[in-house]
Design a protein that fits this description.
Strand order of the largest sheet: 1-2-10-7-8-6-4-5
Bound molecules: acetamide, zinc ion
Structural class: alpha/beta
Number of strands: 25
Shape: globular
């Protein structure tokens, strides 16, 4: 933070004397780019006078934002107001229409900006300072503007439907955090969530299922039902509700971006309109790309969506297509021959490019998940990078815009604390500090590529999030970190400075009825992961009698003997994966007395990660003849827990070679260290 303190003159101290309280230093999220402490504090009265100097665009919207904080505020159309807003054609230090300056003197608070958005964000900063100081605003000059133009939150309302009130409540919090894009994941196999007049079965059937939760729905075979069935669960946004949400968001300078999934994650559409699937056998999730009716349907839907959402971007999904049905479909195969498409990736690219042309013809652009690059990226597409950052960076190198939402930092559906203390989540371990550590535009990127990375987004997928309260619990406080990543210059960000601000903001959200995760209860990372472990095998040579799984090599040969224990999840580069079978031998270099040999395995059944059902530990002095020290058999228990189980031998022995074999009937084994004492 550029935070310049200057010594107060005697005259200033006298002026301050009018205020008996000390104004607190500004503690704002996201941290403004520059705060200079300068001049007098100012006490905003309960019924402040507001001057909105003409010409200010959106003055009604701005007055709306003011009365949310000061319900008794009144307009005073000349000098001498407590808060004055004005537009300037140029402002030193501000280049973005979302930027602003905020100056406090003993005469009042003045906010200037290039556009209405900047004034709105200046007001958000002022509102936070007002809260902090109970109306006493410290004497400061703030010059502030966002680091990135796109600062988003994605809500998945397909897996569990969330209504308009829930969405508006999140919009309220987003606005205070200066987030400006709400991406609604409106369609997925678990339920279609937007009224489309031309296709009534989407909302009479595809929006409903017999089971309340996504998990039960999956366990019972992914069935749908009629809206009128007494056991129907689900719902959808009517077009009137959509218009209302879009307008509510616009009043808070937030654009709502609709996502209509294609060509996959569309099982609910195929259930309602089976003719849109492949022949002779439909893939349960993928549209038939070779069927002209698919384009008719998608274009009709896009027509209605474009009418409802003024957003420049329409998100067309594009992720995780199985593509299996296409390989065996007479129509898809015919299209591939006709168009000379060499594989199913190019077939997907054909659909995306054709839909992009359609969206472009309406004056809009598409965003797609990073899989839309497979088979060739549509010419004007913006890529939303989720499987890491490589997709976004590759797109940026190719001259495309990219929005970063990598799973490891931005997926708000992962555990935010020790799994045993949390409601079941999809997996992962993403505490607030890890979200905050993310830098979407590292200095290592070429300078011409950096501007193509236009934003950052937190994604809340809701497979394991059945209630509104749970959804908020996963969003807050992690969304605070996303907001600061997107707004504050990287060099002004510091975890130590952010953490107490986040605690305060989180408490405030709780006081406003948000169901936040309470940072005061945070347990933190797995204790074993927080300090290195020393043991006989550390740094010794490991022979892999069976290779690790190539998707999770971790640090290769050294992983199991590097003295580093793993954290709550296997994607922290501490855990090595094995496809059902692990078999390694460690050479201690000389015969040693041994009292312990053990390894810990993680189990999290959702992603097929299991502890072994059998472990054999043997030792040898010469590397030829082995003595079996211990054999452990354990029945598989499938449950919702994340567990860590140690499989170990303890006793007295002497050996130079230690062999450790672990086997599971299916799935992946993950272990972090083979400890020998
Ligand atoms: C995604 O998480 N499938 C975009
Ligand atoms: Zn087909």
């Amino acid at each position: 933070m550029k935070y310049t303190k200057i010594f107060l003159s005697a005259a200033m101290l006298l002026a301050l004397g009018a205020c008996s309280k000390q104004a607190p230093a500004p503690a704002v999220i996201p941290q403004p780019a520059s705060i200079e402490q300068k001049g007098s504090a100012y006490q905003i009265p309960d019924a402040p006078m507001i001057n909105i100097a003409a010409p200010v665009p959106d003055s009604e919207r701005l007055m709306g934002a003011i009365t949310e904080v000061w319900p008794q505020a009144a307009l005073k159309p000349d000098e001498g107001a407590d808060i004055s807003l004005s537009i300037s054609p140029s402002l030193e230090g501000v280049t973005s229409p979302e930027g602003y300056t905020l100056s406090v003197t003993d005469q009042g608070v003045a906010i200037e900006a290039l556009d209405g958005a900047g004034l709105f964000y200046g007001l958000q900063t002022l509102a936070q300072m007002n809260r902090e100081g109970q109306g006493l605003i410290p004497g400061v000059v703030i010059v502030d503007e966002p680091r990135m133009e796109y600062r988003g939150l994605m809500l998945d309302i397909s897996r569990h439907y969330r209504d308009a009130d829930f969405i508006k409540k999140q919009i309220d919090a987003m606005a205070q955090l200066k987030l400006n894009r709400l991406h609604l994941h409106l369609t997925d196999a678990a339920g279609w969530r937007i009224e489309i007049k031309k296709y009534p079965r989407l909302t009479e059937y595809a929006a409903w299922r017999p089971e309340e939760t996504w998990k039960e729905w999956g366990e019972n075979g992914h069935r749908y039902c009629n809206a009128t069935d007494s056991t129907a669960h689900g719902g959808f946004l009517t077009q009137d509700e959509v218009r209302d949400i879009v307008a509510y968001a616009a009043d808070r300078y937030i654009t709502v971006i609709p996502e209509i999934e294609m060509p996959s994650h569309s099982g609910e559409v195929l259930a309602a309109y089976p003719e849109l699937g492949c022949v002779p056998v439909a893939d349960g999730q993928d549209f038939c790309v070779g069927n002209e009716e698919t384009y008719e349907f998608l274009q009709d839907v896009i027509d209605e969506v474009i009418d409802l959402f003024p957003s420049h971007y329409i998100h067309i999904g594009g992720d995780e297509a199985g593509k299996q049905g296409w390989r065996n479909c007479t129509r898809c195969q015919r299209l591939m021959r006709q168009k000379g498409l060499k594989d199913v990736d190019e077939l997907q690219s054909y659909l995306i490019t054709r839909m992009e042309e359609y969206v472009n013809s309406k004056g809009r652009d598409i965003i797609g998940w990073d899989e839309i690059m497979e088979g060739g990226l549509a010419p004007n597409a913006t890529v939303m990078s989720w499987r890491g950052t490589e997709g976004g960076i590759r797109a940026a190198h190719g001259g495309h815009k990219a929005i970063m939402s990598p799973g490891a930092y931005c997926y708000l559906d992962g555990y935010q604390d020790a799994p045993s203390t949390q409601p079941q989540a999809i997996g992962g371990y993403l505490p607030l500090e890890k979200v905050y550590s993310y830098n979407p535009v590292p200095d290592t990127l070429a300078s011409d590529v950096r501007p193509m990375i236009i934003g950052v987004q937190g994604n809340l997928w809701c497979e394991y999030i059945p209630t509104a309260e749970h959804a908020e619990y996963m969003i807050y406080p992690r969304l605070l970190a996303i907001a600061e990543i997107g707004w504050t210059p990287q060099e002004e960000r510091s975890w130590a400075d952010f953490k107490p601000r986040a605690e305060k903001f989180n408490e405030y959200l709780a006081s406003q009825g948000y169901h936040v995760f309470d940072l005061a209860t945070e347990v933190g990372n797995r204790p074993e992961a927080t300090q290195p472990v020393d043991h006989l095998a550390k740094g010794k040579t490991v022979t892999y009698n069976r290779r690790w799984w190539r998707q999770y090599p971790c640090n290769g040969d050294s992983t199991l003997v590097d003295g580093q224990r793993g954290g709550w999840n296997y994607n922290d580069y501490r855990w090595q994966g094995f496809l059902s079978h692990m078999d390694v031998t460690i050479d201690l270099e000389k015969v040693e007395p041994i009292t312990y040999i053990g390894a810990t395995f993680m189990q999290i059944c959702g992603p097929d990660v299991y502890r072994p059902e059998s472990v054999v530990i043997s030792v040898s002095k010469d590397g030829e003849s082995y003595e079996e020290l211990k054999r452990i058999d354990m029945e598989r228990v499938v449950d919702d827990e994340v567990t860590f189980t140690e499989f170990a031998w303890e006793g007295q022995s002497e050996a130079r070679y230690v062999r450790y074999q672990a086997d599971a009937s299916s799935g992946v084994l993950f272990t972090d260290e083979l400890i020998i004492k």
